[in-house]
Amino acid sequence: MRDLISLSGPVRKALRDGAPVVALESTVIAHGLPHPDNLEAAAAMEDAVRQAGAVPATIAVLDGRIRIGLSEEDCAKLADPDAAVAKLSRRDLAACLTLNGTGATTVSATMICAHAAGIRVFATGGIGGVHRGAEVSMDVSADLLELARTPVLTVSSGAKSILDLPRTMEVLETQGVPVLGYRTDRLPAFHSRDSGLPVDAALEGPQAAARVARAHWALGLGGLLVCNPVPEEAAIPADEVAAWVDAALAAAEQDGIAGKEVTPYLLRHIASVSGGRSLAANKALLIDNARVGGEIAVALAEGVS
Predict the structure, then answer these.
(1) Which of 156, 69, 78, 158 is nearest to 121 (CA)?
(2) pTM higher than 0.90 for the full model?
(3) What does the alpha-carbon distance between residue 281 and residue 284 come to, in Å, rounded to a whole number?
(4) Enclosing H/E stretch for 201
């Protein structure tokens, strides 16, 4: 695996020195946000990690290599709306690498690459999960299985609000993934701070998260999900989001959207009908999750007891 990876200079030095590093996905650049919000959010996330005292490591596949730590030029290439950038999950990595392709990593692919490089903390927006109507479509994100088997701590604002959150929590429970609230005892719902569902345990700060992660990994277990609510000033009431999601789902069905295109389609539709409020919330939570990821990575590197 290491023969397929290229580390940037700052990431290589940080890993060699045992300094804190936070992995960041690239799908948010290529598929998650419109241009130029994607580049602005990606840069702000990296800045938030640095301000917390850690080194950011945005991950993508470029020209058949896993690149960990991207330049501004790399990010611009991924952000180009006319570029053919693949959306990479676990199943897509090997083909993209072998075919000398370029792709943006989703949660599952980013976790795999981060773990292979020795990075233990990953910050993202919202994980994938069980889609509404999955009892018919069987549309369940690979993120959930990756969280179970790959020993990386993932910071997110829960699962995306377009999903079936109770069923997503059931799958995470079945897979043995601890769902931990960051200074909250409620599961966030991406754009909203409270889904109405409880988390498995609440953490009071980065040191507590680091202690739980160390114990979890000492037991030989997989990943952990740390859920950080969207900042209050950007949060949207859950009932408003629910109405937007219902409208977006109806539009997706009418347009015949399926598979990996569902999530970006729904998020674009919601951004449009919300007058940009969902986009602002998305950017705010991405940046704040990067900050929290940096703080937890620092606590892990310091070896808190």
Answers:
(1) 156
(2) yes
(3) 5
(4) strand 201-203
Report d(CA 268, CA 265) in Å as an integer: 5
Indicate if 25 belongs to the active site. yes
CB-based contacts of 152: which residues, under 8 Å, 6+ apart? Answer: 23, 111, 114, 115, 119, 120, 121, 122, 223
**CA distances from residue 145 to 168, 174, 223, 301 in whole angstroms, order as listed:** 11, 10, 10, 26
**What token pair was written down for 201?**
């345990």
H-run or E-run covering 59? strand 55-62
Q: Are 69 and 57 in contact (CB under 8 A)?
A: yes
Residue 199 identity: V
160 is catalytic: yes
Question: What number of residues does the chain have?
Answer: 305
Catalytic residue among 25, 46, 146, 295: 25
Half-sphere exposure of residue 28: CA atoms within 13 angstroms, side-chain side: 30
Whether cis (ω within 30° of 0) applies to the bond prior to 36 is yes
Give the separation between CA 118 and CA 123, rounded to whole angstroms.
15
SS3 256: coil
d(CA 190, CA 94): 30
**Out of 160, 260, 283, 295, which one is annotated catalytic?**
160
Bridge partners for 235 per DSSP: none
Give tens-digit pLDDT for 240-280: 998 988 888 889 888 888 777 777 788 788 888 889 899 99
